[in-house]
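stuck on this:

***
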Amino acid sequence: MFVVLVYDTAAERNPLVLRTCRKYLHWVQRSVFEGELSAAQYRALTTTLRTELDMGYDSIRIYRTRSPQLVDTEWLGQEMGNQDSIL
């Protein structure tokens, strides 16, 4: 599946969430990640993130689709991040 993940967390948790997301997805813009994940990788990512969040304060939004070709993406302004291989 193709995933777009956006997070808004307390400043002290940002580095932890950032590191976890970078293990699975490509960083594309400040608190935004995207990439292809298997079902097992998706479960591992969300399980790890649940342990790192304050569920009463932090917020993560995940958009899922079958393929990146099904998502129309338009850049305005400076392009950030990269699409290099994660491994």
